[in-house]
Amino acid sequence: MIDSYASEENKEWIASASVVLRGFALSCESVLHTDLHKIISTAPFRHMITPGGFTMSVAMTNCGSYGWVSGRGGYRYDPNDPLTGKPWPEMPESFLTLAKNAAATAGFDNFISDVCLVNRYEPGAKLSLHQDKDELDFNQPIVSVSLGLPAIFLFGGLKRKDKPVRVPLAHGDVVVWGGADRMRYHGIMPLKENHHPVFGNQRINLTFRKAY
Ligand code: MD3
Ligand code: FE
Fold first, then answer.
1. Where are the domains of the chain?
2. Are strands 186-188 and 151-155 parallel, antiparallel or unpaired?
3. Is 12-209 a domain of CATH 3.50.4.10?
4. 144-200, pLDDT tens digit by residue?
């Protein structure tokens, strides 16, 4: 864990149980990049279909014991990748440790993630306001790692109509969401065209969850 995070000054609380840890993942960006490439060589990015029949603009893959999948039949966590019928790639140690350390820094001890959903945003891709409610235990936090191009995160309320707050997220930022904020509506604004020296013309988001 980075020393500077021993201090409360580096934690940007955006709600009572949600905190932005600016640059928390910077010290491990190269191992994350290497491990991400291993994952996508086995389980490539794909554009999933929503239950309503639309193709998502965000491309996704997973690693860990389960993966989040969407299709005409709805959303679910599946131990196997539907593209190959084989288990998702194992969660790399670098991912597991980063998520655990970030959660602990935010006050959520012993966060053992069993799913990492990997989202890839190319320019124009967005994620509409939604809630994450496919997990078993809503007392478990969610940890999100932003890599590559910056994006604007929309942080809404518990009702869809609540006006969202805009939170800019940059390469290396980690956000931990839990407790009272776990069921808030949230989304990502359409990604702007840009270039990142390591990740290129895209934003990668690692979303760590405990599904079961
Ligand atoms: C806030 N991903 O995969 S970070 C998602 O950047 C998702 O790719 C976004 O929303 C992304 O479902 C946002 C993760 C996130 C996840 C759950 C939350 C933020 C959250 C639950 C409550 C509040
Ligand atoms: Fe979400």
1. 12-209
2. antiparallel
3. no
4. 999 999 999 999 999 999 999 999 999 999 999 999 999 999 999 999 999 999 999
